[in-house]
Amino acid sequence: MKNVSDNLEHASVRQYCKAVRTPAIAANFASLAEQAVKENHTHIRYLEALLALECEERDRHAIANRIRDSQLPRMKTLEEFDFAQAPQIPAAKIPRTGRRRIHRTE
Questions:
Q1: Nearest 5°: CA angle at 45, between 42 and 51?
Q2: What is the DSSP letter of 79?
Q3: How far apart are the first and last CA of the chain?
Q4: What are phi and psi of 92, to 5 degrees?
Q5: What are the tens digits of pLDDT across the range 29-73?
Q6: Is 92 helix (H, G, I), strand (E, B) or coil?
Q7: Which has the higher per-residue pLDDT, 7 or 106?
Q8: Residue 85, Cα to own-chain centre: how many angstroms?
Q9: pLDDT value at position 100?
Q10: What is the C-alpha separation between 85 and 83, in angstroms, rounded?
């Protein structure tokens, strides 16, 4: 019987999280609750952990959106570089340049 009521409570919390658009809380509230019980945390500490997780996820999502929206070119490797487009750069010199060590003299 306890398992059924737990499942109903979990479904209810997930539904509320969906309504207020807090997917990180919905995905992690149960595991964080178990951890809070094991570590004897207060309700406030549990709530703080949930909200911090949601904020971190939103920040990560916002950064990913900004990077995607900026339309920056993707990273290119040296193997993809078209030396025909830059004839002033000798192709034979490039691999040595990448391995060159810089010695500082002070």
A1: 145
A2: G
A3: 76
A4: -70, -25
A5: 999 999 999 999 999 999 999 999 999 999 999 999 998 898 877
A6: coil
A7: 7
A8: 36
A9: 45
A10: 5
